[in-house]
Amino acid sequence: MGDPAQGQRRVRLRDGGRAGSLHAALRPLAPAGLPRRVRAKQLVAETRSPLSAEPGQAERFDYEYERCGTANLFMLFEPLAGKRHVKVTERRTAVDFAHVIRDLADVHYPDAEKIVLVMDNLNTHRPASLYQAFAPEEARRLTERLEIHYTPKHGSWLDMAEIELSALATQCLDRRIADAETLASEVAAWQVRRNADGSTVDWRFKTEDARIKLKRLYPSIQPS
Known about the structure:
By secondary structure, the chain is of the alpha/beta class. The chain has helices at residues 19-26, 94-108, 128-133, 136-143, 161-171, 180-197, 207-213, and strands at 9-10, 34-46, 65-78, 83-89, 115-119, 146-150.
């Protein structure tokens, strides 16, 4: 995910501040960049064995199914390097978020002096969540390594992690998956393949475009 010796790392979580979040996400990096996003997945089991495919006939599934709860997926995406990491959890509480952030800092970017994080305005996406999960000293250590930017309210589409979640949904999650263990295994296989391909995002919406398209979100400055 880049050479830590090149300097400051950048991670985009799905949050931002109008064009500010775009600027944080798109400014030239010597290091890396990640957006972060959350999505739930309904776990569904078959009630009858599918009918195997035959010549001229696709595999067939019964319309009945069994609900098996839900699982949560945290998406971390480094678009300039074409790398992503998906973590499957039971829930998406403040504590779950805090552990994802610690993994981000200590496992994925242990040598980064500063991680620029772009994320949305979900109520758990706050530094306070770290203090709910860890001792104050540990929470402060992690907080000091983060530079956080939030996407505008009603503007979460500015997060590139949203695009990766759409790819994950169409390429891996568009079928019935009965339990979290299978989900984690399938998602991990998808992650390995997509990272190996170096798939990234051709992002064409720049800060200059935001100042025009999102003009209504900016404060009006009246001459004195």
